[in-house]
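Usage

Read records sequentially. Each one opens with the input sequence:
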Amino acid sequence: QVQLVESGGQLVQAGASLRLSCAASGGTFSIYYMGWFRQAPGKEREFVAAIRWSDESTFYGDSVTGRFSISRDNAKNTVYLQMNSLKPEDTALYYCALKSSYVGNYDYWGQGTQVAVSS
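and closes with the structure output:
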């Protein structure tokens, strides 16, 4: 069973930077995409960023474009989310997800890491 473990979330002030990490482990699996999503209290889950494992193509949600950057370490099956110029509205539980095939949705999800940005 694939496990995703996120880390790096914490309380920071507006304007600060954070880097989240997510490591995938457990058995034999393929990675087609890995992505980050977030959910703030009372809001729906929102797409943040994704990376296509084969060619490192990246995709971003409108609210984070230009401030966040996703990258991966293939040898470690790890994806990173570099978050710069953080805003209070970035406060949310950030989830890592893995898509193992070009069909269907994300198959595996982490437990989430909390990011809080104070004004």
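Summary fields computed downstream for this record:
- The mean pLDDT is 96.
- The radius of gyration is 14 Å.
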